[in-house]
Amino acid sequence: MKNLLTFLFCLCLFAGSAQDNKVFDKIQKMLDKHSANQPSENIFVQTDRDLYKGGDIVWFSAFVRNLGLSALGSVSDNLVVSLFDEDGEVINEDKYKLVGGICRGDFDLPADIAPGRYVLVAYSGATTQPDDVFMKLIFVDDFNSGALLVNAEEEPQTLAPGKQSSLLFRVTEMDGKPFGGKLSYELMDGDNLVVDGKAKTNDNGILKLEIDVPDKPFELPLDLILRDGRTVVYSSPFHVESEKLSVRFSAEGGKFLAGANQKIAFTVTNRLGQPVAVKGVLVEKGESSSIMQLKTLTPGYGVFPFSAEQGKLYQFLVTDGIGQGQLFDLPKVESTGAALAVTRLDEEFINCSVQLAGMPATDMILAAYAGGRLIWGTELSVEGEQKLKISKEGFPSGLCELVVLDQSLVELGSRLIFIGNDSELQVEADVALSSIERNTPNSLKVKLKGEAEKVLSGIINVSVVPEVLISDAAPSFVGCLNVNGWLETTLAGVDKLADADRLNEMSVNYMLIGNEIKHNRWSDVQASQKLAKQAEGVTRAHLEKVLPVEVKNYFSLHALDLKPSFSPEFYKINPGLFQKIRPQRTAEMAKDDAYKKQLASGGSLLDVIKMIKPYTLDGDKIIFPGGNNSLMFQDGALIVLDGQKMGTSASFLSSISPYDVESISVSTKPIDIQQYTGLNSVGLIEITTKKGERVVVTDDTPAKQYENGNRIPREFAETMLNSGDQNRCVQWWEAFAAVDPVYERELPGSPVAGQFKVQVLATDDAGKMVSKTISLIIK
């Protein structure tokens, strides 16, 4: 039996015969061509926060890792960053210059942007596939002091068709006082109403909904919407037992072999692609008795040991909760084939085995590759089962593919593994004062350390923001760039493990069974040998065409990611951040529909305004009821067009085509009128055209600057700290600051108080990455 167990280091030198070296040379050449034709990059974008209001600046830093590099670096020299709404429409888009795999940037949110969810999208000139595009949710809120805070009092339950579901919520005013009143609710199946009703809170602000779910086979989650009058105060999907699921089974390292002791992984998603937790039993097809009980370890993923019998068919029956009663077939049991299993990774070795079923002794190749580079390889002859102990020397940290090939380089089995860092990078981050008064300066010091407390140099990204503006569901810097950003199926829980500095080999490798690096299977390597590299313009045009659909899919996939929620404590100490927004009454909704139909039919604006609010004409002035009896009356209603005051002459309205009008707002409240004039006008008519904007752009609004087609980013300190904004939420933001050997900054005083998070993202000169978060209290 031949077992060379030779090791290939950076120069890919193998011990063995000349024929051996030719085999491995060929493998390396195939990997080289695959990397050239199908460059793979992993992009991560960090924003200063996750929750914004209209008119805010979004500050961001972008990191790009090429699969062929252990450190940051990119094939392309530019990065496109866009913001999409839920309809797949682009709100903002710019191109930024990449240098060494990094860039920073910023963009303004429109002042009149609607509250809701948006997706930030980033891709480079080397991005060829939609699933390589980076996406993350951005939330916009109106910071309404009159809003209600609604929180579920218990874990979200699964709704059961034909049964009553009891849901509990705590509803408070922004200051924490229990809300006393009625809320209406709607349970929606897409755009179709399932059931609606009203419910009243008790004295403690507890809202109990008793919802009778119709006995229908709902295939997707149902959306629960709570309203206070017209205003939506809560919206979230709820899983339903009848949801149609998709279950995929994967035998570790290859085929589902008869008689082999294998680990079988399974992934579970609904039709929106959302990972789902399930319980059930494994049964033989046609039999009712249970072989074993199965359940997911994390939402959407499970694994179990099993030895299948030849000639039998197996099924998974979901017995509880989502998907109850649905049956799923396991793969057909193969009588012949190979499987590669990883039994254990310790500090020095990768312990694995190759199992054969129904095959004679076979000569084969076992190889390991990562980032387009052959790391290790050996030729061996296997009969039955061959156990191997592979030294980790020469293996880079991160994801690595183990593959078993026959003599024609056809894949027999494969297994993705994760190699942890032997030399961990650590961040020491400290503020001079951990608790300070608002508007009081502070200081921050950061050091990077490696083995034996050795001080290292590198770069860091620093943000200091209130924790209520940060989403728990946001992707993780370390989790994305080291693991999830590469995978065909992202691993639930990896981001939290990474943020807690517990991204270890044992936890990750167990979840990698059945997973692969995107576009990096051995079959992908073989297929790319016949392909030519596409021009950057061709791939970008393709991406721009499919991105709206991909964005909508992303919204569906992340429907359960809730918006960061304000706390009553944060509201009470920062009242200046919020403003009272009057919700439209239901009667006004009907008027909206009526007047917009009148506009669409080409009716005069004078007639349309009268539909909204009756008036009389005093010469050329519009007088709303009560105005001409006022002792202080001096003028008619003020007309404002796209934010510009146009006077009080009603004849001006005849110059505006009703087909050009987007909306009309009428008010006689002094607080609304005084936004535009201190005179005693008796009303305000605000008209927004389809090409107009509500906000007036002044000469002080900075124009975007570009160099060679790339956006030139602004400086945070210069832009924000000199603005005098007393509602500035971000205390500090700095991208790609040098740490050599220490980073020290004087932090400006924050006008906003609360519990803050100091987030530090770091990478050293060797490409290792780590993040650190510390707390800061500003009173």
From TrEMBL:
GO terms for molecular function: endopeptidase inhibitor activity. Residues 1-20 form the signal peptide. It comes from the Bacteria. Keywords: Signal. Residues 43-123 form the Macroglobulin domain. InterPro entries: MG2. Pfam families: MG2 (PF01835). This is MG2 domain-containing protein.
